[in-house]
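Researcher: Please predict.
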Amino acid sequence: MNNPAPPSPETPGQITGAAGLGRRERMLLAALAAVLALGLFLLRGGLQPAAPLQQLARQSLDLPVALSDGRPTLVEFYADWCEACQAMAPAMETIARQHHEQLDVVLLNVDNPRWQPEIDRYDVNGIPQLELFDASGSAVGRALGARSAPELEALSSALIASTPLPDLAGLARQSSLSASPAGNAAAATAAMAGPRSHG
């Protein structure tokens, strides 16, 4: 009588096959997790370069260094939420790149408490506000409001060449004369409005 053979224990090949299937499932789950993590990374901004304002601000010299290095300086007071500042950013980036050996471009964010002394010192009451300095670090002008690329280039060229600033609306030239009492009262009134007060 032939009795059926009792079931044999699993052979090593069968054990490896079952373990291989588990390993494949784990690898598939790991790959899926990596794809999901990459998707989440890309949705949150991923490898997009920082906005021009942020890039310029990070690359800026400290203001005291810029004002003492023998090059003229263009300072922009800005905020990330300011549409006019954002619109000017590509032109500012171009100015900084094209004239990096001749001109310092410094960006100071009015929302950063670190710059409050500079905001107070330069009476920033609206943005964008440009402060213009000659190569010796002396203030030569102030420009309020958005500036086009040609206007920024004209201002930069005048600073580099040490020539008079161009005639532009909203541009005030600095004078070495002391302010009149009426001017001091106007400055005090303007200082009461902060750079974030313009909606």
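Model: The chain has seven helices and five strands.
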